[in-house]
Amino acid sequence: METAVLNSTTVKKSNFKSEEYFINMGPQHPATHGVLRLLLTIDGEIIKKVEPDLGYIHRSIEKMSESNSYQQIVHLTDRLDYLSSHINNEAVCLCVENALELEVPERVKVIRTILGELTRIASHTLWWGVMGMDVGALTTYFYGFRDREMINDIFEETCGARLTMNYNIPGGLMQDIHPNFVKRVKEFIPHFRSKLPEYDRLLTGNIIFQKRTKGVGVLSREDAINFGASGPVARASGYSCDVRKYHPYSALDKVNFTEALDTAGDSFARYKVRIAEMWESLNIIEQLIDNIPEGDFKVATNAVIKLPKGDFYQKVETARGEFGVYIISTGNKNPYRVKFRSPGLSNLSLLNHIAVGGKIGDLVATMATIDIVVPDIDR
Amino acid sequence: MNSISNIIDWFINTGVLNMALIALIYLTVFALLGLFLVLLERKVAAWFQLRIGPNRVGYLGLFQTIADALKLVSKELTGTVKADKFLYNLAPYFVIVTSLMALAVFPFTKDLQAFDINIGIFFLIAISSIGVIGILLGGWSSNNKFALIGAMRSGVQTVSYELSVGLSLLTMVILTGSLQLSEIIEVQKSGWLIVQGHIPAIIAFMIYMIAGTAETNRAPFDMVEAESELGAGYHTEYSGMKFAYFFLAEFINMFIIAAIATTIFFGGWLSPFGITESLPWMGLFWFLVKTFVLVFLMMWFRWTFPRLRVDQLLTLEWKYLLPINLVNLVLMAVIVWLNLTIQI
């Protein structure tokens, strides 16, 4: 259908001099979720080309890591994908712990997993609110934030921060959990179970929303693999790639959960996968929250951590996909080189592929379902 | 001295003074009404969105929009250097003047009507389609790419939905047999038209509300300023009072769309079952109650529905609303012909 429209416009340009129309979407634009600049080539409403232009929020975190100690690097990762900051911290800690061959207590593993899943829910509720806003339903934003607020309060009590947690340290956790933690998480689970159907009533079942997202921005399984997509974006195309399933870390090998998968590959599938993930995260938390083992909240490490010489890699599943930490150590207290494999960058790279041929409105809906966080892309 | 008193006499005798006074009263009242509608929208939005809404300026935040308006008046008018100055400055006036003009023909009570012309409905349809010229001018002359796309969308949208508004009102005109608004209300003394015309009237009302929402460029049809796509659409480059004119016009247009629906479908100032027939001034109360219920309905649309895409918008109009409307028109004609209307 869309290609037919494209052809008819290109064929009929005999006497008509037409020019390509460029618009700059961003760096200050409401739909780019930060400071991403998209250079659009459009023909009327139809998109011919999307060129993301990065670099507006580049802080050279990887380079900074080279002159910081391993404890300090953990803090820098908060500023990558700020919506999954806990999981990012965890990735660095796991990498360092693996390199040191340090066995952390079970208690730490369980708490890390619970907090990780809470982070995932918090990130997805924010995404859901913004998703609605991008397709024009402004009310969803506040509903998403209402539930996210409860999680943030839990974080605030236990970690002392609401967004950039810094709760993980190599060897364990900075502090033990707050006495209220278990109670509040248990309050949250039934609350959110009752609110998720509300999400469906407000947005998922809406006919306009379905028309806006079904069949829009279709990504095939092959393309998802070729572009290195991960997370909900890849899983919506039928590519089973959940790191939590295939390379379980922390306490994830002890829990039962199903990987949310869809085969349609369109924006609506990506939407459904994320909603399903929120249900699954609730299941994971429910299985763990009553079984937090007693024990220490950290194991003692040297004040100056020196990794053995070699390359170390650890990947985790953030709310956006596969986040990898690659550390090359020469045996010093600083890494020789650190590379972060961010899910956002590879997910953004397929935007041009799936948005071309759609309308401007489709681009916005597609971009919302890819769920980019710009500081994650621009490190 | 003599000549001045002559001029004053001329003013009084020809009724120009009356006209000017009435115009001034209308302007003041409806400017305030527009401000009140903005406040209402913010309160309704807050209610839908689990928020409190404006509650700081005055009692329950009642003066919030007055304060906003004062701020906008006192703001410096910045514009783009590359804009076409004349058209750029003209556009907001087009929009606000046309929306205020439409208010002249409404019968608020039996006696409170500024301008009772025999082609009232036709006048309303004609006036409401002029407003889009202002939007097109604004978008075109701003010399901004986003504004231009917004303006083009507005042109497409208004021209399409104009048809549905016109046809659904025409359906009702078959029933009333008159285009004069006061006459239409007289007809409704034997039952509001939505009751008299039952099935086709209800279909016409639904189509009218959809098309009316689209005509005011409000969500879910706010393609014109779709903030997640176009920043602010056609009024991207406007600031201060010029922006306020666009903003105010949108709200007055919303009131007009609701007021037309009240007059045509819900008996205008007539009270339900004639309960306050002995008190003519209560007509204003009933008119406003009915209108605000419909205004609330439009706000409800806005704060719950996502936005349509521009091609879906046109599909909705040309493939669904327009054919349904045409069939409905015939249905109404048949019902009137066979005398199947419900008379109370």
TrEMBL record, chain A:
Domain NADH-quinone oxidoreductase subunit D, chain residue ranges per copy: 134-302
Keyword Membrane: yes
SUPFAM superfamilies listed in its UniProt record: HydB/Nqo4-like
GO CC terms of this entry: plasma membrane
Enzyme superclass (EC): translocase
Catalytic activity annotation: a quinone + NADH + 5 H(+)(in) = a quinol + NAD(+) + 4 H(+)(out)
EC number(s) reported in the record: 7.1.1.-
Coiled coil: none
Alphabetic keyword roster: Cell membrane, Membrane, NAD, Quinone, Translocase, Transport
InterPro entries reported for this sequence: NADH_Q_OxRdtase_suD, NDH1_su_D/H, NiFe-Hase_large
Membrane topology value: Peripheral membrane protein
One of the record's GO molecular function terms: quinone binding
Localisation per UniProt entry: Cell membrane
Keyword Metal-binding: no
Taxonomy, superkingdom: Bacteria
Assembly: NDH-1 is composed of 14 different subunits. Subunits NuoB, C, D, E, F, and G constitute the peripheral sector of the complex.
Its biological purpose: NDH-1 shuttles electrons from NADH, via FMN and iron-sulfur (Fe-S) centers, to quinones in the respiratory chain. The immediate electron acceptor for the enzyme in this species is believed to be a menaquinone. Couples the redox reaction to proton translocation (for every two electrons transferred, four hydrogen ions are translocated across the cytoplasmic membrane), and thus conserves the redox energy in a proton gradient.
Entry similarity comment: Belongs to the complex I 49 kDa subunit family.
Protein name: NADH-quinone oxidoreductase subunit D
Organism: Salinimicrobium sediminis
Gene name for this UniProt entry: nuoD
TrEMBL record, chain B:
Keywords: Cell membrane, Membrane, NAD, Quinone, Translocase, Transmembrane, Transmembrane helix, Ubiquinone
Transmembrane regions listed in the UniProt entry: 20-40, 90-109, 121-140, 160-179, 191-211, 243-267, 279-300, 320-340
This protein's record includes keyword RNA-binding: no
Any one of the GO CC terms: plasma membrane
Topology with respect to the bilayer: Multi-pass membrane protein
Subunit and partners: NDH-1 is composed of 14 different subunits. Subunits NuoA, H, J, K, L, M, N constitute the membrane sector of the complex.
Record family assignment: Belongs to the complex I subunit 1 family.
Name of this protein: NADH-quinone oxidoreductase subunit H
